[in-house]
Specification:
This protein is an alpha+beta fold. It is built from six helices and 15 strands. Strands 7, 8, 9, 10, 11, 12, 13, 14 and 15 form a nine-stranded mixed β-sheet that branches. The structure holds uracil.
Amino acid sequence: MSLIRLDKYLADAGQGTRSEVKMKLKQGKVKLNDVTVKKPDIKINTQTDCVSVDGRKLSYQQFQYYMLNKPAGVVSATKDNRDKTVVELIDGDKRRDLFPVGRLDKDTEGLLIITNDGTLANNLLAPGKHVDKCYFAKIEGVVTEATVQQFKEGLDIGDDKLTAPATLIIEESGEESLVKVIITEGRYHQIKRMFEAVGMKVVYLKRLSMGELKLDLSLRLGEYRELTQQELMLLGKK
Ligand code: URA
């Protein structure tokens, strides 16, 4: 059984900030099991209690999970003084506790999970978990089989340890090469630094998948949607 305060329940259910919620309570708009309630600290059983606002029954979801196709130019943070954040792109959700699972650089596009479930984030990001992350990249310079081998063996990118073995798949090689890279770690600027270590430059980067979860290619840049039950299962939830 899960008991939570009524004001938190209402905020979690998208009824506004804590102060907006307090106002609705004061105005007598909130009913608990058909009885008007005004106290924000009443405890609610999320499984059995029925809460309504203005006569509309609320459905409570403890956790939210979104897939965002991150555009370039927004930062992977919850707040930023200068730039728009990925959380601010989730405009259909009034919750205050959402955060991105891991970081993509400001100029990187693609798959980013936005949630308020810390356990999911830990499961995907903990160093011991070795979750595969697949990226598509455009590279300035000719990528060859020798580079593939170097990625496999591990690279010195200036950290204490070499990078873990990574898979590099060449799709087109030329003055500008197109590749896919699969890494199991999540070091700062990892893919850019790996290419730098072999004398090349990443000019475009997009994340395509994390573990079994693939970017929904029907999402345009900046668009998002909730994860489906099936996708949550792929991530070990449900
Ligand atoms: N590697 C990078 O260099 N940047 C990212 O955003 C993700 C992986």
